[in-house]
Structures are given as structure tokens and as C-alpha cells.
Amino acid sequence: MTKDVAYNELSAKAVEILSKGAFLTTAFDGKVNTMTIAWGSIGFAWQKPIFMAMVRPSRYTFDLIEKSNEFTVSIPFKDMRQALALCGSRSGRDIDKFTAAGLQAVPAQKLTTPRIANCGLHYECKVVFKQPMQPEQVTAAIANTCYPSGDYHTLYFGEIVASYVDETETAE
Q1: Is 34 helix (H, G, I), strand (E, B) or coil?
Q2: Which of 23, 30, 115, 153 would you label with 96, given CA atoms 20 to 30 Å apart?
Q3: Is the dihedral of CA 15, 48, 61, 172 positive or negative?
Q4: Which residue ranges make up each domain of the chain?
């Protein structure tokens, strides 16, 4: 069971948890993958609630999100460090992360992309804008620290079309 919440009702808590890790999931043509994210933002743009997620083109998730133009973000309200570590260090090209991490994909409310079961807070997002990072626009400090290999992100701005919590989970 889930309970709908306003996209910004738990945003401060969501951003705090996001910095420690959350799951971004996407799917296309029967292929589903989740990855760990720790960078992103929740805001309002173009008269819409927006979740901005960053995905590197080298990631398996990139190919799926490019084709599906949608993603879910599941913010864990409980300790899921082991699953987050696995999903952040292994590629969905090589393994089924759901099986390996003991995660269950369950249907989302409005998207074909699933969400992570019993995780906490969920955002369902439809991509409304995307922008590959332009290296010449990034400060040297960020480029040197975050992109030493030149593997810059693409920023995906997803309209939050549903936001809800698992009723069995609470923000502690």
C-alpha cells in the first residue's frame, strides 16, 4: 500500500537521504535496471515539479533512459546500504541487480518503469528536458574532482507525475 504525498512534502528529508544513496530505475523493451544515485535535485521548473537526475553515458541505465524517457527514484527510509553499494558498483549489463541485491521491482502508479518495493519515498518522472554536460562550462575544480576521466553526465529533468510513500515505511 502507498500513500500519496506532495512532491515537496518530504523533499528536505529526500535530499538528505539522496546524498547517501537512492535508487534510480528505468526500463525499456522488457529490460529493467536500477542504479545508485547520490546527486540530484527536487524543484520546480516550467510550471512542473521536477526531479533532476544525472546519468553518465557509460552507464547501462543511460541507454534505457534514453529510449524510455522515464525513470523512478526510490529514496530508502531504512538501511539499504548493501543493496545501494551493489547497485552502484556493478553493471546491469553483467548481472541482474534486483536478484543480486535482494530487491523487488513492483509496478509504479503511472509509468511502465517499476519502483523498488518497500523502500520509502518514490518519485515517478517523465523526462521533459535533457542536457549533456558541456565540459567547457564546468569549473576546473569540479572537472578535476568529479570528471578526471572525462565521463560527464547527462542531466535528466523529469516531471514528477506521482510521489508517494510506502505505508509500511516512515521517514525516521
Answers
A1: strand
A2: 153
A3: positive
A4: 2-166
Name every residue whose Cβ is closer than 8 Å to that of residue 60 and which is 6 or more positions away in sequence: 33, 35, 91, 92, 93
- For the chain, the residue count is 172
**In the CATH scheme, what is the code of domain 2-166?**
2.30.110.10
Cβ atoms of 132 and 116 within 8 Å: the answer is no
Instruction: Give the predicted TM-score (pTM) of the model.
Output: 0.94
Cα separation of the two ends of the chain:
19
Residue with cell 542536457: 131
Binning the chain into helix, strand and coil, the percentages to the nearest 5 are 25, 40, 35
Which amino acid belongs to residue 158?
G
